Amino acid sequence: MDDLNRLTAEEFKETEKFPYVLILDDIRSLNNVGSVFRTADAFKADKVYLCGITGTPPHRDIQKTALGADETVTWEHVTDVLELVKSLQEQGYTVAAVEQVEGSVSLLDFQPEPNQKYAFVFGNEVFGVNEEVVKQANFCLEIPQYGTKHSLNIAVTNGVVCWDFVSKILKG
Q1: Among 75, 65, 62, CA closest to 13
Q2: Nearest 5 degrees, angle CA 165-CA 170-CA 172?
Q3: Which pLDDT tens digit goes with each residue over 12-48?
Q4: What's the CATH class of domain 9-171?
Q5: Residue 49: beta bridge partners?
Q6: Is 56 left (phi over 0), alpha (psi -120 to 50) or beta?
């Protein structure tokens, strides 16, 4: 770990995070939840919100993929995702539903505003982001895809969005 120059769990909790949170709504797979925690740790997300039926730590299936990130990343369970989205908007967050819908913004064209906080909403593996949340969000964000499939796994989608956001913030 010293050679990799990684933070300890205590240092991670104290370090300044990037200005974004992740919202998981009705995610069925606990392995996906664990993967999101690991990505949130890797890209210093401020917080992970686990909404609806999304499982919460401690759970062995989350721990299996989180590899301890469920203990370093701040998280909270919230029952009503729409109320959470509205509350975050009132707190100054720009909310992006990560969903393929008419009028969505391509990740290629998305440029984070300096000094702006963001919340990225990821929906159910089958049904996507709740329609009410899509309507409430400030905008929808879509990852361009060039093959035969029309969607990515939630954990992969989360990784792409987090990496893209952080890399653009660092370049900005």
Answers
A1: 75
A2: 90
A3: 888 999 999 999 999 999 999 999 999 999 999 999 9
A4: alpha beta
A5: 23, 76
A6: beta
